[in-house]
């Protein structure tokens, strides 16, 4: 019962944030609003150890994927409540995180690899009004960035774009810009918001659910009563 109540509160809270984003950034005259939800696992609620994300189908990984599906459900419901006519969810984590029996209705889910599309962003094109980036993590070397890395979490790869060091958030935003989709980020660490805002001041401001890093494998967790 407690878990069900917490899930409902999560849906309501993120639904309000998504709804606000639609009113601010989306074209109110558009009859059809397609949204692409690009996901990762390391920035999801309750995920703060690489043991949760690297090895597939371990007890810790299965639990992390369940957390992931809870966040995805809240986002999908929020987008639909906010007026989206179509929602496509991409399973963007390397070892994949979608649990089929936990998928909420109203969205199409893309999972499994390898798959076509630039950066594995299958089916992303100019018909989408925007791309939500859910559960993204800080780039490699970010101080206090929880599970910070870029590309492989087992390496120390670092990347620069136009002389600005950036991570996977920048890579995906750049790919989304090819078909002229607007990028949005939600449910990501504060450090990722800072990275996002450094990309381009003209980008839509992120809708953020607070998640504070303490160190690479540590973060502040808040109960729902504290977060409301």
Unreliable stretches (pLDDT < 50, length at least 5) are 1-5, 224-228
The best one-word shape is globular
Strand order within the widest sheet?
Answer: 3-2-1-4-7
The CATH topology corresponds to Rossmann fold
Helix content: 25-40%
The tally of structural domains comes to: 1
User: CATH homologous superfamily?
Assistant: Dipeptide transport protein
Could you give the order of the helices and strands? HEHEEEEEHEHEEH
Tally the helices. Answer: 5
How large a portion of the residues is in β-strands, by DSSP E? 15-25%
Q: Would you state the CATH class?
A: Alpha Beta
The main sheet comes to: 5 strands, parallel
Count of extended strands = 9
Rg calculated over all Cα atoms: 16 Å
Q: Please tell me the overall pLDDT.
A: 77
Condensed summary:
By secondary structure, the protein is α/β, with parallel strands linked by helices. Helix content is 31%, strand content 15%. A hairpin with a 2-residue loop joins β8 and β9.
State the main characteristics.
Rossmann fold; two-stranded antiparallel sheet; 31% helix; 9 strands; 228 residues; five-stranded parallel β-sheet; disordered C terminus; alpha/beta
Description:
The protein is globular. Mean pLDDT is 77; it is low at 1-5 and 224-228. The protein is 31% helix and 15% strand. A 5-stranded parallel β-sheet has the order 3-2-1-4-7, sandwiched between helices. The chain is an alpha/beta fold and 228 residues long. Helix 1 packs across helix 2. Strand 1 (34-39), helix 2 and strand 2 (86-90) form a beta-alpha-beta unit. The chain has 5 helices and 9 strands; from the N terminus they run H-E-H-E-E-E-E-E-H-E-H-E-E-H. The longest helix is centred in the first third of the chain and has 24 residues, at 2-25. It has a single domain (2-227), classed as 3-Layer(aba) Sandwich (Rossmann fold), CATH 3.40.50. It has helices spanning 2-25, 59-81, 168-177, 190-199, 224-227, and strands spanning 34-39, 86-90, 108-110, 130-134, 159-161, 164-166, 182-186, 213-215, 218-219.
